[in-house]
Design goal:
CATH topology of the largest domain: Rossmann fold
Radius of gyration: 21 Å
CATH superfamily of the largest domain: Glycogen Phosphorylase B
Structural class: alpha/beta
CATH architecture of the largest domain: 3-Layer(aba) Sandwich
Shape: globular
Number of domains: 2
Number of strands: 12
Number of helices: 12
Largest sheet: 6 strands, parallel
Length: 364
């Protein structure tokens, strides 16, 4: 099929790296691997950082103009068969696809749509209504986490839902054996306000509790909150922490293979593709049992998940894997196997293609 791909929060071509951009690109890769013709149909960013009504009003005007432009382009060059929207939610609804799909007879599909009733205020309530209507219209809605699926089921009972495991291009991690540098802890995360900053704060507090152990920490990431992040680690000897800044995607596999344990609390984490990358390289994970993290880290098998907000438990989990080499290596092997079997591009390609073939068959 000819697929028009759209990510209202962040285009796959956006210059700033993030998990959203990476997942958008991974979806395009999987769809192309299934031999569909896929193109990014629009770079219009529909983002509502607050529930101000006038902000949504302006976005709706921009969206109307973008829909007119796409209609003209399709009249000249032919329309797509399907509109695929990635990650519509209360701050970033799809203001293009549902209208265009109805007007032009396109199939409409979403991935990682979410609905949160507690966000129904101001413009966010309007945005959520748009998300709910889009989800109900969709031929299928792919959910990456059980939490998202349950939220959609409760809010939109008629929605057609399907699960797809979060995934990465695991082949990038196949070559080379994990080095099990036991005392080298690794983190890859942006430095920004909100959940990411909360995770950095918790990690630093936990590491203060294991200063008696032998370890070093390599931090890959940058952002507007870098000064605050660095402040959290004051009091930890400087030679224990290496600040790598932004690491290019092509260098990530080598970074992880040179490590021993991936340590990231994951406050509010949707699921976290970096967890999958670390595990693909053979690293066990220490994280919190929170949000979507259990979708990608299996407690007791591929890592240790500690109670949410329990800094002492998080520190003890790090200590446990630093000092128990047999468990660390066992979890690392299981983590690597888990990603290649259940969270690979090949697995996602098969899931997406099978579902889209059913969509195509229903529309004939």
């Amino acid at each position: 099929m000819r697929i028009a791909f759209y990510a209202p929060l962040k285009s796959p071509d956006h210059p700033i790296p993030s998990g959203d951009r990476q997942m958008a690109r991974m979806l395009i890769s999987a769809l192309r691997a299934a031999r569909h013709e896929v193109g990014t149909v629009s770079h219009l960013r529909c983002f509502l950082p607050d529930p101000a009504e006038d902000r949504l009003d302006r976005l709706e005007i921009e969206a109307e103009g973008e829909r007119a432009k796409l209609t003209a382009l399709w009249a000249a060059g032919g329309r797509p068969d399907l509109w695929f929207c990635y990650h519509p939610y209360y701050k970033s609804p799809d203001l293009l696809g549902p209208v265009l799909a109805r007007a032009h007879g396109l199939a409409y599909v979403t991935a990682e749509a979410s609905y949160s009733a507690r966000r129904n205020s101001g413009a966010w309530a309007r945005a959520q209504a748009a998300v709910a209507n889009a989800v109900q219209q969709a031929e299928i809605n792919f959910c990456f986490t059980t939490r998202d699926r349950q939220g959609l089921q409760e809010a939109i009972p008629a929605a057609r839902l399907a699960m797809i495991a979060p995934y990465i291009d695991a082949e990038r991690f196949r070559d080379g054996e994990p080095q099990d540098n036991a005392q080298r802890l690794i983190v890859v995360a942006m430095m920004r306000q909100g959940d990411k900053l909360d995770s950095y704060a918790m990690l630093a507090e936990a590491l203060h509790l294991v200063l008696d152990c032998s370890w070093t920490l390599a931090i890959a990431g940058d952002g507007d909150a870098r000064d605050e992040v660095r402040g959290f680690f004051q009091g930890i000897p400087a030679d224990r922490v290496t600040w790598l800044g932004v690491v290019e995607p092509s260098e990530i596999a080598a970074l992880f293979r040179a490590g021993g344990i991936y340590v990231w609390p994951g406050c509010g984490e949707a699921y976290g593709l970096a967890y999958l990358e670390a595990q693909a390289a053979g690293l066990p994970v220490v994280a919190q049992h929170t949000a979507g993290v259990p979708e990608v880290v299996v407690h007791g098998r591929t890592g240790i998940l500690t109670p949410e907000g329990d800094i002492a438990a998080f520190a003890n989990a790090i200590r446990r894997l630093l000092t128990d080499g047999e468990e660390r290596r066992r979890m690392g092997r299981a983590a690597r196997m888990q990603v290649f079997e259940k969270h690979s591009l090949a697995a996602a390609t098969a899931t997406l293609d099978a579902a889209l073939k059913l969509v195509e068959a229903r529309r004939r």
